[in-house]
């Protein structure tokens, strides 16, 4: 009888062991949501390979990756995300179909050094000035091509018909003097242009002064340059908390409703917040942008979660579209239209509404 009890217990023990095994946690993933897994382009490596066990396929849309990133088993989804991210969304491409591309509008950018041969903006750089980056002429940056492509990129830009006056500034030196010099250069270039062909807006994806600025030297020089630009009638958008220049905030699309501003959310996918009434949200996440670190090697990167840096050129591009329609609008008038036509996102945030904005600009042409 005792022998039978032992035999009965053996299957029970095996069952319990099997159950325990099945309840063990799966191995931890190497790649987590919103991780940056771009292949290194500075070290000479051109591939960053991840096995299927390293990541969840459901998280791919949150990753930041480039063409050198290989997610084994999901290459098709990677390509889909990269292509989807090129669409500016919010009806921008429908505006382009009307022939409104920012054609004839001059804009400017102050950002890190740029290799100007990327197919997204080759031939669109009207003038280029380096304020002191001191980099190899065959080496690019991450930031420069990204913001330029968002503004005027051929396949992914908001205003692909506009051209750019580009001032390269070494943000890594944390010295606002370089940004001020870049803005003064833009002012001088603007003076050379005839009436009707002036530089309308400067996109600055940085905060060279003001509360929370990461810059440590000559912050007052940026404020002085801004005053000079205003006197010349040039609108500047930057990342400061300022009533005139800091009017743009980060937001992101509902990926299933990319064209609908009312479905957008203020803030970041991992950290949402309601955008203050004095600002307007522009898309900064789920975007594909241009990339070129070495001359002659243009590529792309997908950004699952981007910063405000991506929103500034987006908004500048929308304004450029408006100025193509009615170049007689003043800075104050066109910014007011941007606010008057913005949509309300799902968390109560102001969200830029390009199609409504363009319709309102067109209405200003009516007798």
Automatic annotation (TrEMBL):
Keywords: Hydrolase, Protease, Serine protease. Pfam families: Peptidase_S8 (PF00082). The keyword Cell membrane does not apply. The active site is at 111 (charge relay system), 143 (charge relay system), 309 (charge relay system). This is S8/S53 family peptidase. The keyword Cell inner membrane does not apply. It comes from Lawsonibacter faecis. GO terms for biological process: proteolysis. Belongs to the peptidase S8 family. The lineage of its organism: Bacteria, Bacillati, Bacillota, Clostridia, Eubacteriales. Residues 102-344 form the Peptidase S8/S53 domain. GO terms for molecular function: serine-type endopeptidase activity.
């Amino acid at each position: 009888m005792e022998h039978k009890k032992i035999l009965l217990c053996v299957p029970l023990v095996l069952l319990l062991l099997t159950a325990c095994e099945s309840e063990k946690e799966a191995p931890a993933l190497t790649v987590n949501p919103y991780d940056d897994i771009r292949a290194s382009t500075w070290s000479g490596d051109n591939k960053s390979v991840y096995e299927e066990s390293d990541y969840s396929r459901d998280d791919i849309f949150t990753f930041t990756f480039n063409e050198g990133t290989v997610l084994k088993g999901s290459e098709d989804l990677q390509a889909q995300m990269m292509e989807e991210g090129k669409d500016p969304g919010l009806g921008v491409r429908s505006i382009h179909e009307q022939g409104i591309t920012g054609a004839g509008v001059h804009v400017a950018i102050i950002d890190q050094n740029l290799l100007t041969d990327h197919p997204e903006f080759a031939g669109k750089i009207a003038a280029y000035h380096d304020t002191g980056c001191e980099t190899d002429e065959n080496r690019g940056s991450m930031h420069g091509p990204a913001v330029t492509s968002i503004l005027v990129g051929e396949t992914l830009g908001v205003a692909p018909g506009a051209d750019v006056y580009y001032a390269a500034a070494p943000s890594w030196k944390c010295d606002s003097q370089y940004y001020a010099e870049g803005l003064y250069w833009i002012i001088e270039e603007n003076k050379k242009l005839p009436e009707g062909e002036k530089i309308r807006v400067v996109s600055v994806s940085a905060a060279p002064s003001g509360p929370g600025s990461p810059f440590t030297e000559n912050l007052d020089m940026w404020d002085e340059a801004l005053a000079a630009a205003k006197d010349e009638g040039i609108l500047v958008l930057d990342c400061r908390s300022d009533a005139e220049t800091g009017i743009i905030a980060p937001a992101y699309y509902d990926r299933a409703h990319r064209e609908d501003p009312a479905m957008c959310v203020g803030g970041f996918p991992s950290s949402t917040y309601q955008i203050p009434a004095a600002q307007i949200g522009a898309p900064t996440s789920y975007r594909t942008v241009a990339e070129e670190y070495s001359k002659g090697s243009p590529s792309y990167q997908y950004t699952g979660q981007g910063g405000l840096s991506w929103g500034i050129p987006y908004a500048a591009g929308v304004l450029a579209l408006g100025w193509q329609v009615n170049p007689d609008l003043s800075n104050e008038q066109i910014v007011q239209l941007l606010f008057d036509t913005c949509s309300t996102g799902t968390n109560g945030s102001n969200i830029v509404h390009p199609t409504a904005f363009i319709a309102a600009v067109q209405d200003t042409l009516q007798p």
